[in-house]
Amino acid sequence: MTGTPATEPTPYALGAWGDSQPHDLVGVGIGPFNLSLAALAHGVPGGLATAFYEQRPSFAWHPGLLIDGATIQVPFLADLVTLADPASPWTFLNYLRSQERLFPFYFAEKFHIQRAEYDAYCRWVSDKLPGLYFGHQVDAVRWNPERALFEVDFTQLDAEGEVEALGRAYTRNIALGVGTEPYIPEPLKPLADAVTVPVIHSCDYLHHRDRLLAAERITIIGSGQSGAEVFLDLLRARPAGSEKIHWLGRTEAFAPMEYSKLGLEHFTPDYMRYFHSLPEQTRDDLVPRQWQLHKGIDADTIAAIHDELYRRTLHGGWPDAVLTPGVTVRTAGRVGTTKIELHLEHTRQGSRSRLTTDAVVLATGYRERPVDRMLVGLDRYMRWDSAGRPLIDDQFRLRLDESVRGSVYVQNAEHHTHGVGAPDLGLAAWRSAGILNSLTGKEPYPLPRRTAFTSFGLDREQARPAQMPAGLLPLVEQT
């Protein structure tokens, strides 16, 4: 656990509440987004009393997918802080400087860094930044009307994950950054829970790679970036002519991600504001149509896959690798003790078939992690949309009853209200800066008034009122 600076409030044991000074902000979860918020909060003039809690013993960013050579899909400038404060001590370039690697990076001329390097950079920040408490599981969040503060109950865990102590912190504001969790389709859940035949989510790929390579036939399900990276890694590791890999996807094609310069403007604050201003039903209709903005495969990965497949034809014959888009898995079951049978349906053909395999990798993506249990103490104060999802305003706050004086901010839980940019690393620093501007009621981080050449709506000023400081936008009413 990172040591607590003497100038900050210290978490204390259950039963010893006293009149301890409350925090200005407590963060729940320490992934890249809350780490960004913590780093920028550290630089707010005058200081903020903050504490960020994380159940895991240390920072880790998709460790099972740190495949050798795999890069993140945003430029290195999309680090934790640069797009809000390029002079921050927590920039990626300052990390390189601390490692005496600035010149090698300069000559490498790499705009997109490897995932492993991004993970190492975030771990460097998490090791040095004060006020981060790993091995602390947040159990409940409540509003205490008598104190006019939020109560955050947590469990301190030891290195083995066992309970060490209970505690409670008081805070004026909360930032939920609990991230997402792996999604496993219903037909495959019983198989994933068993251990006799490997059916693993791609988030755990590297932990099971040797076991997968030992399987005779491998099937990958999922046509996005993770599925492509797993397919390419397994393909490179299997002998020519004996690859025995089947790659299935629901989409119509193994399609490239939209990466044109104007297409990327969907990941700007301008588009996020525009999306938030749309009616709820319009947003819900729009989200699934935009899958290629964030669920496609980057062009370099597609090229590398084709190059590897082509290389295996140079001496005659074709690789034993089958790539089939437009397919769904209807049901699945075991055959004996060592094989799996997948029942497939081709969407366009309307045809059905069976596929027997020895291992399955589920590159089926992620879903927002449910926080209902954690927030049950706030349930009567929360406001919901017609689909039972929490309403989130344009300052990334849960809509709460007016009697609650503090704010609960969310990070990467607002896809339904803010669109495709919600999980994008490139908007992390901007969103964190906006949260801090809102929280302080000031503008410690001046934000750009315009970020895109595209005007997404007919009335630009409706999405960006001229009379409001950047980052402090009025509530947009839902319709």
Description:
It is a single chain. It contains 14 helices and 19 strands. The longest helix is centred in the N-terminal third of the chain and has 14 residues. Helix 1 crosses helix 13 and helix 7 packs parallel to helix 11. The protein is of the alpha/beta class and 479 residues long. The chain has a 5-stranded parallel beta sheet with strand order 4-3-2-8-19, covered by helices on one side. It has a 5-stranded parallel beta sheet with strand order 10-17-11-12-13. A hairpin with a 4-residue loop joins strand 5 and strand 6.
- Gyration radius over CA: 24 Å
Task: Describe the global form.
Answer: globular
Structure classification: alpha/beta
Strand content: 15-25%
Helix residue percentage? 10-25%
- Give a count of the beta strands, DSSP E runs of length 2 or more: 19
Question: Could you list some keywords that capture this structure?
Answer:
479 residues; alpha/beta; 5-stranded parallel beta sheet; 14 helices; 19 strands; globular; disordered C terminus
Topology:
Elements: E1 12-13, E2 25-28, H1 32-41, E3 50-54, H2 92-98, H3 102-108, H4 115-128, E4 132-134, E5 136-144, E6 149-157, E7 163-171, E8 173-176, E9 180-182, H5 189-193, E10 199-201, H6 209-214, E11 218-221, H7 225-237, E12 245-248, H8 269-277, H9 280-286, H10 291-294, H11 299-311, E13 321-324, E14 327-335, E15 339-346, E16 352-357, E17 359-362, E18 366-368, E19 407-410, H12 415-418, H13 428-440, H14 460-463
Parallel strand pairs: 2-3, 2-8, 3-4, 8-19, 10-17, 11-12, 11-17, 12-13
Antiparallel strand pairs: 1-7, 5-6, 6-7, 9-18, 14-15, 15-16
Helix pairs in contact: 1-13, 7-11
